[in-house]
């Protein structure tokens, strides 16, 4: 049986999805680079700004369950375009002084932007699962993850490097503007892939014109949690994202105020951690796919090991005293941040493929909506947690963040225990449904 290949149209559609993700996620961490400026303009303390950052992420994460449910029911193309506009219109308005004269108006626009970012998560991975076969989903999802990482690095970089000359609002305008033409191009050009088209048991039937018609029901949500691979994968997301939620929000101001770096130097350290995570996502996606073909259990084991080992180079980055902020120590700090980000990126490259490969086509949007909630609880509460802990000390806050990668790494060993059984169960179900689809077609 010949594998389903992506057409040139689907390839361009995926490229558009990646580009839109870059700019949509560019907005997510802009606040981390402009906390002093926001505090000066609105008279808000760091705790208040931390809660705003948390509200931005958490509201988007929880609203994604609605997007996820409808992802499994209606046109994913139309839903994606709507989601992009929902996220980018308030982001653009955040860069207009007329609409951000008060802290309340700024907060409202941040929350509305978070809704768009939360919505794109389940839609994107539902599409990816029907563009790519089981053995290639790690690489495909890794490229989407790269887009998000580039966006999350690019936003703070724009703010960090341009705020001094153009003010803090310019970054929001530059992050939002490109997505309006990109979304219009996507609306005119893209098409939805057929659901289930990359499942081995279904692809030949779908190629022959037989549609896979199964759709999610509200009663199916209990199945998402009875799948033990899902359960443990959901669970690891909470401790796994707390470090990112705290570090990505507070590390720049920590390096400025506690280590004596300039805003540009502190921003560079943050970017090196993100750059390491971005490159690591691609490298470990390739490694993960090879290991998965040998034994699916090796993929979550790789994720757990990467997270645990990645803590080691991050410890000196956050704890070693700096005597010469602009000299050799800055170089070593950047190197440690890069290596740490590289190693802890293993789950970001592979965890989505784990979920795709153990869930039904009509459940994947909802699965990723639930995963988005658990994967963003840490990132969402991270800014607020950091705001509560900063009065104790920035150093304590940074080490508190690192601690949470320990339980995250260990939980992946539980994922390894169940992944084979859940994958085999899915493949048997797909074979059974393929047989029924054939029988129904013959009767017709």
CATH homologous superfamily designation? MFS general substrate transporter like domains
Helix content: over 70%
- CATH domain class: Mainly Alpha
Per CATH, what is the topology? Growth Hormone, Chain: A
Number of strands: 0
Task: Give the overall shape.
Answer: globular
Q: Which structural class is indicated by helix and strand composition?
A: mainly alpha
Describe the structure.
This protein is mainly α and 444 residues long. The chain has a single domain (9-190, 220-438), classed as Up-down Bundle (Growth Hormone, Chain: A). The chain is built from 18 helices and no strands. It has helices at 8-26, 35-42, 46-71, 76-94, 103-131, 137-166, 170-176, 179-189, 203-207, 221-226, 228-257, 263-294, 298-319, 328-344, 346-356, 364-389, 394-403, 405-443. The longest helix has 39 residues, at 405-443. It is globular. It starts with 7 loop residues before the first helix and ends with a helix. The mean pLDDT is 84.
List keywords for this structure.
18 helices; Growth Hormone, Chain: A; globular; mainly alpha; 444 residues; single chain; 0% strand
Helices and strands in order, then pairings?
Layout: H1 8-26, H2 35-42, H3 46-71, H4 76-94, H5 103-131, H6 137-166, H7 170-176, H8 179-189, H9 203-207, H10 221-226, H11 228-257, H12 263-294, H13 298-319, H14 328-344, H15 346-356, H16 364-389, H17 394-403, H18 405-443
Helix pairs in contact: 1-5, 1-6, 1-8, 3-5, 3-16, 4-5, 4-7, 4-8, 5-6, 5-16, 6-7, 6-12, 6-15, 11-12, 11-16, 11-17, 11-18, 12-14, 12-15, 13-14, 13-15, 13-17, 13-18
């Amino acid at each position: 049986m010949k594998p389903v290949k992506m057409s040139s149209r689907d390839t361009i559609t995926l490229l558009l999805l990646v580009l839109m993700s870059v700019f949509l996620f560019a907005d997510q961490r802009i606040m981390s680079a402009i906390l002093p400026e926001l505090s000066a303009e609105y008279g808000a303390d760091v705790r208040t700004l931390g809660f705003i950052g948390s509200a931005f992420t958490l509201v988007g994460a929880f609203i994604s369950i609605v997007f996820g449910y409808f992802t499994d029911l209606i046109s994913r193309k139309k839903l994606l375009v709507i989601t992009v506009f929902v996220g980018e219109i308030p982001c653009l308005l955040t860069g207009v002084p007329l609409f951000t004269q008060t802290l309340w108006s700024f907060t409202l626009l941040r929350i509305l932007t978070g809704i768009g970012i939360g919505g794109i998560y389940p839609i994107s991975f539902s599409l990816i699962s029907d563009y790519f076969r089981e053995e290639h989903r790690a690489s495909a999802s890794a490229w989407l993850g790269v887009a998000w990482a580039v966006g999350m690095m690019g936003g703070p970089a724009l703010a960090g490097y341009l705020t001094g000359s153009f003010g803090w609002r310019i970054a929001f305008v530059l992050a939002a503007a490109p997505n309006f033409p990109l979304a219009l191009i996507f609306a005119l050009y893209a098409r939805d892939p057929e659901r289930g088209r990359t499942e081995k048991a279904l692809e030949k039937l779908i190629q022959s014109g037989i549609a896979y018609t199964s759709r999610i029901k509200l009663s199916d949500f209990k199945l998402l949690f009875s799948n033990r691979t899902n359960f443990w994968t959901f669970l690891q997301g909470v401790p796994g994202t707390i470090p990112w939620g705290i570090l990505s929000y507070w590390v720049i101001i920590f390096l400025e105020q506690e280590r004596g770096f300039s805003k540009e130097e502190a921003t560079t350290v943050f970017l090196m951690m993100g750059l390491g995570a971005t490159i690591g996502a691609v490298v470990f996606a390739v490694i993960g796919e090879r290991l998965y073909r040998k034994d699916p259990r090796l993929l979550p084991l790789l994720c757990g090991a990467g997270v645990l080992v990645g803590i080691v180079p991050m410890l000196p980055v956050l704890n070693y005293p700096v005597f010469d902020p602009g000299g050799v120590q800055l170089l070593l700090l950047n190197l440690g941040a890069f290596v740490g980000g590289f190693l802890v990126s293993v789950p970001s490259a592979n965890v989505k493929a784990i979920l795709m490969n153990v869930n039904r086509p009509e459940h994947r949007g909802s699965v990723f909506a639930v995963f988005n909630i658990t994967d963003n609880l840490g990132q969402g509460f991270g800014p607020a947690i950091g705001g509560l802990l900063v009065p104790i000390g920035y150093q304590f806050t940074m080490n508190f963040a690192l601690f949470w990668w320990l339980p995250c790494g260990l939980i992946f060993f539980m994922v390894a225990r169940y992944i084979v059984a859940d994958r085999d169960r899915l493949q048997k179900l797909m074979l059974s449904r393929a047989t029924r689809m054939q029988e129904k077609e013959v009767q017709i």
